[in-house]
Amino acid sequence: MSALDTAPNPRPESARAEAPPLLATKLQAPAVRRELVGRGTLVRRLHEGASARVTVVTAPPGWGKTTLLAAWRLVEGGRPPFAFVSLDPGDNDPVRFWSYVVEALRGALPALAETLEPVRRVGSAAPADAVLPRVVNALAGLGERVLLVLDDYHAIGAAEVHAGVAALIERAPAELHVALASRSEPPLPLGRLRARGELSEISTDALRFSDREAAVLLNGVLDLGLSGPDVERLNRRTEGWAAGLYLAALSLRGRADPANFIAAFAGDDRLVADYLGGEMLDGVRAEVRTFLLETSVLERMSGPLCDAVTGRTDSARLLADIERSNLFLMPLDRRREWYRYHGLFVDLLRRRLDLAAPGRARQLHARALAWHLRAGTVREAIHHALAAEDRDAARELVATHWNRYFNQGRLATVRAWLDALDPAAVLADPRLCAARAWLELDAGRVDSAGPWIEAAGRAVEALDEPDLPASSRAETAVLRAVHAFKAGDVGAAGDAARHARRLAPVDESFSLTVAECVHGFTDFWEGRAEGAAAALEEARVLARADGNLLAEAYVTGYLAMLAAEGGRVDEAAELAEAALGLSDEPGFATHFGLHAAYVGRAAVHAERGERDGAVAAAGRAVELAAGAGRVEIAGAHLTLARALLGRGERAEARSALARAREVLSGCADAGRADVRAAELEARLSPARAPAARSGEAHRARARRAAPLGRPALAARDRRGALRLARHGQEPHARHLPQALGFDPL
User: Fold this and answer.
1) Cα dist from 138 to 145, 174, 198, 359, whole Å
2) Rounded to whole angstroms, what are the CA distances from 456 to 422, 461, 515?
3) In this predicted model, what pLDDT tens digit does every residue of 661-681 receive, in sequence order?
4) pLDDT at residue 716 above 50?
5) Contacts of 502 (CB under 8 A, 6+ apart)
6) Distance, CA of 115 to CA of 605 (rounded, Å)
7) Section 705-734 average pLDDT
């Protein structure tokens, strides 16, 4: 008997002289409607597993265990026959249990009826002694296969019954296969059977509905007409739980706004709450129910953490009991040290906790916060600080640690933290203002980043701490450099980056890394290849040492572009792939910094004559560059234009060039990008411009085409030309490297 269950029905003190009548409905397999969701893969697993001695299907209520076994019987078509027994707590009486087993076998195999008739009058004899030998001998002598299905085996808690079933499995002839469906793992010698290869198992994970199966249920069977994304969202919310999907479908019927309902669907939905409460919570002991409610505040749980939160000393044992009972508890590791509750179940638990003890959750979150602070698990500590309404702890934790998560590409996490903080606290802390500015810049919202940068500067000046302003001033300077670069002022960005490098303390790796990044980027766009390579390599080393995967990927992509420009195609290919393979975080693959790697990849494809690959890579660069600097956006469009031209698609190339021109028109100083655009235009329009036009000629045209109210570019262009001259270069197209990494012409 599991520690979670109520006490089993005791065996009568004196055996009955006459067995009570058996309920025929307990011996009937549930009917399966053929139009319901097919689980063909699972039925095949059951069919193949029947060659072993035992099949065990374990999952919480509502996961389709019984339906699956009934579908298996239907598919087999009576060969072999199924002896089906639906168990309940009354079957803890061994006499009653074995009476049902014998009757089920007699019904499945009429040839056994006469042989097993004496067993029906077992009287006071011990069932294991009286029943098992006759059943085993009868099956062995018949030589015909039969499948004995014991459904709802979790209802059995009597040790004597478990011992008898274990003996039946151990001694049964090859003609008998036993299949059990249970909410918890039955206390049978499964380890020994597993080691012998005599056990077939299907668990909760296998029973989860796929998106396709969910669509069949919701739209095919229940005719809800949900969109594909809505089906996927609901399936994720229910975690593939069949009953959860069905209950949601009942609540969805007749609603005009299914998408909004699905977004808000939770464990406190009336139908879900009634089902989970009635099937699970209401049947467990009060001690266990209290544990479930108190630990529901945790996103993930371990024995020591639960001890700290609940005040218990035996949480690890209780977690193991709960898992064995399949009470919607999911293990998170193979060692069974960490767990989580099913999403809908934990919703119900939290709702019940709030109703039973208002304010208790905040106290439990505070205990969890203290534990996670000691353990050094930052993300969970921030979550519990916010939930405990410990504003000071939450602010300091976010201010101290947001950068590490940002650098790993977990931008949504950082944004959620900042959104949860008091806005006044964010404005008063330069580190949090900087975090806001970085998020805006990373999203390509250059204009809205400016006020946050200025707020960070004001907050620095208002601080009294002697150490914080130095690093904060450096970060503010770095932000200004990035802001200028993304706004399209290459020269100003380079000056700001060099200033930030001088301000950054030696141990301020993030500021140094970004300053070197911007230094390398601006040198690249101003045509200083050697300076760009040196700065980018330094930035790469700093980023790697700091665990800044985004920065490392970004500069590695630029190095790939430089290698391609230098004709080192194999090196460019290696660098591009290295940049793209640095992380599998969801936010990483779509980060704008990866556009540089795709530009490098496009260059490699073009140099190798792989024109389709060049266009595909350039197209991806354009998609990703949407959040990059304006010069980079224009550069990605120029790369695409050249790739299209290399494939002979001149009209499409002109369209890409026009988009690049549009972006460049908003740049104060685009470095060499406008010169590159001019040369490409000359190649696309040879009759109109046989010679490559100078950057100044293009700028003149851009000024004439500029909308009224935009500042004239002449002064900016003169500053750009002077800067090129200061570095020993002429602002002329002949200094343009062949294509942005390649030249398909």
Assistant:
1) 12, 12, 22, 64
2) 16, 9, 17
3) 999 999 999 999 989 999 999
4) no
5) none
6) 78
7) 36
User: Please, where are the H alpha helices in 625-672?
Assistant: 630-646, 650-664
Radius of gyration of the CA atoms of the chain, in A: 35
Superfamily of domain 24-207 in the CATH hierarchy: P-loop containing nucleotide triphosphate hydrolases (3.40.50.300)
Among 257, 245, 244, 254, residue whose Cα is nearest residue 220: 245
Token pair recorded at residue 723:
């800067």
Residues 6+ apart with CB under 8 A from 722: none
Predicted pLDDT at 33: 59
Cβ proximity of 222 and 249 under 8 Å? yes
Both tokens assigned to 491 = 């020269």
For 247, phi then psi, to 5°, come to: -65, -40
pLDDT class of 729 with cuts at 50, 70, 90: very low
Contacts of residue 165, Cβ cutoff 8 Å, sequence gap at least 6: 150, 178, 186, 188
Asked whether residue 576 carries a pLDDT value surpassing 80, the answer given is: yes
CA-to-CA separations, 115 to 103, 137, 150, 500, in angstroms, rounded:
12, 10, 22, 93
Element (H, E) at 86: strand 82-86
Task: Report the CATH architecture of 266-389.
Answer: Orthogonal Bundle (1.10)
8 A C-beta contact, residue 544 and residue 720: no
Please list, in sequence order, all residues whose beta carbon lies within 8 angstroms of the beta carbon of residue 474, skipping any fewer than 6 positions away.
500, 503, 504, 505, 508, 511, 515
The amino acid at 50: A
CA distances from 57 to 136, 206, 638, 648 (A): 24, 10, 59, 60
Dig out the tokens for 563 from the structure.
């290698």
Residue matched to tokens 């200061």:
726
DSSP 18: S
* Helix and strand totals (H; E) in the chain: 38, 7
Pair of tokens at residue 521: 């980027």
Helix (H) / strand (E) element for 731: namely none
How far is Cα 573 from Cα 603, in angstroms, rounded to an integer?
9
210: Cβ–Cβ under 8 A, 6 or more apart, which residues? 235, 240
pLDDT for 470: 59
- Cβ(596)–Cβ(561) under 8 Å? yes
Task: Check: CB of residue 301 under 8 Å from CB of residue 279.
Answer: no
Q: How far apart are CA 184 and CA 162, in angstroms?
A: 14
Q: What is the C-alpha end-to-end distance of the chain, expressed in Å?
A: 79
Parse the chain into domains and list their residue ranges: 24-207, 211-265, 266-389, 586-594+609-745
Torsion on CA atoms 72, 77, 80, 85, rounded to nearest 10: 50
Instruction: Give the orientation angle of helix 303-310 with respect to helix 360-375, to 10 degrees.
Output: 140
